[in-house]
Design a protein that fits this description.
The structure is a single chain. The protein has 210 residues and is mainly α. The model has no long low-confidence stretch (mean pLDDT 91). It has eight helices and no strands.
């Protein structure tokens, strides 16, 4: 059992690294649109990549936060953000691909954030909110730093997809499944909701003044 848990945590760490890289690229591309210098790319890309996880750890009282205990995450954020400074033009042409990569990163972070909070003894509601925070708040920081209208407050289904992923992760605990299968199902649930929103342009109705 210990060996299985260790293997699962290694998988989660690898997925976290993938999510960090994807979010760093998405943040750096917004910096490109704002015509920032390399330092701006690094700051915006890194804030996007690690912002949500940092807030999650601070709220949960995890000390040190994940990128302090393992600087690999910080190095990847810096490196990918800086590399995007030179690759921004070809990457921008691949914007549709990046939208899907962002959806993958959101789904990964929604589940890993919920899983981490639950493993620390958080209640189901808190664990799901931590998943949403991990998946969404880096993007919120990116938009605020770049003067963009935050995606989190748009009618687009984004945080809602993260809620679905976290809820499925917690709910699947009642099923006779190994953790890897639970993670896969929860990831597909979050990604599926976001994918449907992208393909069919589904969104929540905004408030309208009477």
């Amino acid at each position: 059992m210990t060996s299985n848990n260790a293997t699962f945590q290694e998988i989660v760490s690898a997925l976290d690294i993938i999510g960090i890289a994807v979010f760093a690229i998405s943040g750096a591309l917004v910096a490109a649109r704002r015509q920032m210098d390399p330092i701006g790319f690094i700051i915006v890309g890194t804030a996007t990549a690690i912002g949500g996880g940092t807030l999650r750890d601070l709220v949960l009282g995890v000390h040190p936060v994940f990128w302090v205990s393992d600087s690999t995450f910080l190095v990847i954020s810096f490196t990918v953000s800086l590399a995007t400074f030179w690759l921004a033009r070809p990457l921008t042409r691949l914007y549709p691909v990046l939208v899907w990569l962002d959806a993958i990163g959101m789904a990964l972070f929604a589940v890993t954030g919920t899983q981490k909070a639950a493993s620390l003894g958080a209640s189901p509601v808190v664990a799901i909110f931590m998943g949403v925070m991990t998946a969404s708040f880096g993007g919120l920081m990116r938009d605020v730093l770049c003067g963009e209208k935050p995606l989190l407050f748009h009618r687009e289904i984004y945080a809602s997809a993260a809620i679905v992923g976290g809820a499925v992760w917690l709910g699947s605990a009642w099923l006779p499944l190994v953790q890897e299968s639970r993670f896969g199902i929860a990831f597909l649930a979050a990604f599926g909701v976001r994918a449907a929103a992208i393909i069919w342009k589904i969104g929540l109705p905004p408030y309208r003044q009477p």
